[in-house]
Amino acid sequence: MYMFVNDYSEGMHQKILDAIVKTNLEQHTGYGMDEYCEKARLAIKKELKNENSAVHFLVGGTQANTTVICALLRPHQGVISAVSGHINVHESGAIEATGHKVLALPSDDGKITAKQVEDCVKGHFDDPTAEHMVQPKMVYISNPTEVGTIYSKKELEDIKKVCDEHNLILFCDGARLGCALMSKQNDVTLEDMAKLTDVFYIGGTKMGAMFGEAVVINTPKYNEDFRYLIKQKGGMLAKGRLLGVQFLTLFTDGLYYELARHANECAEKLQNAIKEMGYKFLAESPTNQVFPILPNEIVEKIGEKYGYSQWEKRDGEMVIRLCTSWATDMAKVDELIADLKALTK
Amino acid sequence: MYMFVNDYSEGMHQKILDAIVKTNLEQHTGYGMDEYCEKARLAIKKELKNENSAVHFLVGGTQANTTVICALLRPHQGVISAVSGHINVHESGAIEATGHKVLALPSDDGKITAKQVEDCVKGHFDDPTAEHMVQPKMVYISNPTEVGTIYSKKELEDIKKVCDEHNLILFCDGARLGCALMSKQNDVTLEDMAKLTDVFYIGGTKMGAMFGEAVVINTPKYNEDFRYLIKQKGGMLAKGRLLGVQFLTLFTDGLYYELARHANECAEKLQNAIKEMGYKFLAESPTNQVFPILPNEIVEKIGEKYGYSQWEKRDGEMVIRLCTSWATDMAKVDELIADLKALTK
Amino acid sequence: MYMFVNDYSEGMHQKILDAIVKTNLEQHTGYGMDEYCEKARLAIKKELKNENSAVHFLVGGTQANTTVICALLRPHQGVISAVSGHINVHESGAIEATGHKVLALPSDDGKITAKQVEDCVKGHFDDPTAEHMVQPKMVYISNPTEVGTIYSKKELEDIKKVCDEHNLILFCDGARLGCALMSKQNDVTLEDMAKLTDVFYIGGTKMGAMFGEAVVINTPKYNEDFRYLIKQKGGMLAKGRLLGVQFLTLFTDGLYYELARHANECAEKLQNAIKEMGYKFLAESPTNQVFPILPNEIVEKIGEKYGYSQWEKRDGEMVIRLCTSWATDMAKVDELIADLKALTK
Amino acid sequence: MYMFVNDYSEGMHQKILDAIVKTNLEQHTGYGMDEYCEKARLAIKKELKNENSAVHFLVGGTQANTTVICALLRPHQGVISAVSGHINVHESGAIEATGHKVLALPSDDGKITAKQVEDCVKGHFDDPTAEHMVQPKMVYISNPTEVGTIYSKKELEDIKKVCDEHNLILFCDGARLGCALMSKQNDVTLEDMAKLTDVFYIGGTKMGAMFGEAVVINTPKYNEDFRYLIKQKGGMLAKGRLLGVQFLTLFTDGLYYELARHANECAEKLQNAIKEMGYKFLAESPTNQVFPILPNEIVEKIGEKYGYSQWEKRDGEMVIRLCTSWATDMAKVDELIADLKALTK
């Protein structure tokens, strides 16, 4: 059984493991104030080229989303998101648990547009009963999105422009950011992210680290007292050095990008092959998640040898998610392709 | 200028005012423990014919919705509602502020169906990642709905059945309940409400009282410690006797029903007349709110003499809400009809 | 049985009732946007002599405290209060329910000092683990306090100075503010309140109104979007005109002050008489609440004719609260004094 | 510089590291549903000897405290704690952020007594205004406490008895539980913990693991939907296998106990030596934290070679915390003792 279920089936990349092993018995200050965290922050900030950016390391994505949103919104304010956004679907209500409504906008490809955001915020403030409704104040996007699509630089610039005009905070969930940055369709850099968002994060958990997300706050006022919030929301690791060591390794010699590129290559090969076989997709993805629509009997057959995620049941067929990662064995990709071909006849 | 803007433009019915005046200088225990509250509870319970029902008086509707929902749900649980439900649109995020997601279901007529509820709850528990999502636990309906439509007894029974099968709590917002009960299309009684819901409330604010909502809890376990929650959520009036006096008056000699009947009659006359003029409606309403779709120039004209609510802008025309109440002057209804006819040519 | 239990046993002052009756059938805009609210705001602002002050009318005190605190604090911030402060004891956890810790300071007389506040805030920021603790950000005081004592102008100035130096918000609960302002020991005016606090409120419920608290925000930035919060926390009355009519009456021809003076005079007579009988007090109160310490057998005896609040059980004796109000009959005060004297031998 | 600052200065015990290395590239199901988590659960449950107990692995202590408390309390309920309890002091308001008041009881030695708990709960329910106050519903204790003291079996039994009588939930924070269990003064076993508490946790972070806390729920009804809460509060690690591998190692061949014993032995040697030098302690601790009261000049001197925590400033002297752990080098303990002796004259 080989798993294409998700991008966190394995532990961590060997270089990270080596660094963990090597530094294990060193004594360090806790809570992210150690020298490895400091070095990792510098390594990341070097790429951001934004002197204002502050970098914080949190353990996981739910914490990152929750902490950022509750740190920056007042109680009557909500966060705009694609209906498929992770915060709207898969956080067990963590955002609402901090008191904030997710204002979900329709989306087919996991993305939202500047126009949608503008209509939403104008619609609110034009309404004579605005005070009786949740005030849109933050825009949450994921890059890549939950269905693998990515934002172009132009799209980000347009959203940023609307946010600036309407005093909205732009926050980008980058749980798989590396895969967006290394996508063949991509024209966005980390430097752009630091310019075009107020806050974003660089995912580690799904990109080769054991765990960890690097939250980058580009607008200084939003950094005020942020560490109190990290602590309160449970994201401040006692042995913070573990996060520092991991991110320092990921941002040494371009490891982060290299791992993302591998994940994308595996997915691309898989998607292209499935496409050639004549199957359709939920959305064509330029990153490490592939969403083919396959007949039920084929899904069942490949399920005997490979792990996959069931995405959506349809009549006689199913949308499944096949996920590759830094750890994916390309030989297994080839094997899956061959098996699919055989089943397709 | 005569207002059809809402059903809370005037103060209170004369009989209620008389009772307030008459009892003003009596000394009473606070917080709803006085004799008028006790009598009002008994008067209401007499109509409920459910020995298990407990009655609490709160000041307003936001409090009623918020207090009931946060009293009965655990932090990971959400409340199913029509997308147009008051808790999803017009409570400034009060529900989310207590930590709970509103799980909005599509609806054209303001109602949701037993089938929709069942699909929602089954969809949740069938999902292998259910634990990562908000668990549906309560069903919120409004009767009448925000667009004036009402539930039939059969519809309520069907929803109740699904709730019982899936261990869901059924909660009905009755801010205008009297208008539902007195609608010509209605086949539901207060007694039915006490059987078919776990919790509902009997609105006073929009039904002739100065203010006040009587929350009725029919399932005893949900009544546990409810008064702590009323206090915490700001709904426990120091001079609770004011609520007792009002509801006792409303439930003496059928005043509550009489006032609702008057509101409905005014609306019916208005809706029928507008229909005869050939206009369409957002939804045909058997209660005290009427939602005609009128050309912009006509809306503008009648706006010079009458207050109305702007509901939805469309191309060249507008959905407006005309609202009647216990206090509406039928002569003014006739006048508005005449003016509309003249404008319609 | 005559009640000295609290200051909300009766309905409302006759002038307020007259105004309610007179305006009852007028049609008005809802939610505090009507002309009576506007006039009441102007009448109050005239006394504040602070152009920056904004006035909002809420239904009750729990709402006022909760709404102000949650509107102004971020999630990691707490509110300093005397341990006996209403928000620390008698709001059923309403403050914590909005996410904020009450940082309780010891107090014998219901007051806290500038020195205590300074020590608390310095202690926090000097601690190397400050980020792991709740950040003090607001100071809550009650004037008069829960035991009837009042703040001098000098004391308020000192607290305000510490707040300004440490960027703290000063919030004063004025549920019985009139009684402080009309106390013989008082040297504070409404104008001072508007200068020396960021937010305070002018209580109506306990001062002769049917219900209602006028929240005054003197620091404009704290007024931003405040109405969203009033709505969310359930304090925005649909028929807001009821609040406008009441506060307009209270602030016409000095009625507010006159009612407070009467309450104080009744209490003073009572306290002096009891003192002459040789009894001690929890604290000597210059306002409308009196806290004598009486032998249990005397408490029991007077309990047969008069309502009182049990405050604190001690060995063989009890601290009770006797509360007077705008509605207290001075003849009943005399009667109580006579009865106590007789019981005292 | 050698650190006695805390018990999380180093990474993890070598056996745990070996297990992490060995299993690194295996593919596993996420979120704690993998085979290592299952084996670790079984290994722990074997020691609990309670068939009803359920075991969950969370990343850190703030999450464990927050998740348990908010999962089990209703909004009007609070948690009793010693004033020095971690939840009352060092969680940045995490408990209040989920809506619950911490009801702090005075304590000199970090412990609370059955009598204190009983007085608190009786005091609440005897008060006629109970509904206006936070209802005590849970008792939080730490074993060992924040100052290193431990509960005897008798003390736990007494508290449990009061909890059962008053329908309170007993929750024990076991961040350093191993050190309590292995203390020479201890007479409590894991089996006792599973009988005498509703919920407790077995700390990993401070006991030799990289991170992780094993929450044990002994009362089945409190386990309902607990995983939703873990996810919502950010404690559900994507690569949950990391927690399974660690706890399986800790509970193989008694490693958990062995590491705790070492930490205690280091501390005991240190405390005894300092005592012999004639110094006093904040509290005498039978576990891995030692709290000597030393003259400022000596504190300053040893601060040049050793890390310590500043606990409390006093006149001319300071309470410091010296913390030992599984990783403490006994030779360094000897060196510190020698240095202290030399400084002591």
What is the radius of gyration of chain A?
A: 20 Å
Number of helices of chain A: 14
The CATH architecture category of the largest domain in chain A equals 3-Layer(aba) Sandwich
- Counting helices, strands and paired strands, the structural category of chain A is alpha/beta
Q: Roughly how much helix do the residues of chain A carry, as a percent range?
A: 40-55%
Number of domains of chain A: 2
SSE succession of chain A: EHHEHEHHEHEHEHHEEHHHEEEHEEEH
Largest sheet of chain A: 7 strands, mixed
List the quaternary state of the chains.
homotetramer
Query: What would you give as the CATH superfamily of the largest domain in chain A?
Result: Type I PLP-dependent aspartate aminotransferase-like (Major domain)
CATH topology of the largest domain in chain A: Aspartate Aminotransferase, domain 2
> What is the general shape of chain A?
globular
Regions with little confidence, pLDDT below 50 for 5+ residues of chain A: none
- Tell me the fraction of residues in β-strands of chain A, as a range: 15-25%
The CATH first-level class of the largest domain in chain A comes to: Alpha Beta
General description of the model:
The structure is a homotetramer of 345-residue chains. Chain A has 345 residues and is α/β, with parallel strands linked by helices. Chain A contains 14 helices and 14 strands. In chain A, the strands form 3 sheets. In chain A, strands 2-8-7-6-5-3-4 form a 7-stranded mixed β-sheet, with helices on both faces. In chain A, α1 (14-23) packs across α11 (241-250), α2 (35-48) runs parallel beside α11 and α12 (255-276) packs parallel to α14. The two termini of chain A are 22 Å apart. Chains in contact: A-B, A-C, A-D, B-C, B-D, C-D. The interface between A and B is medium-sized, with 22 and 22 residues.
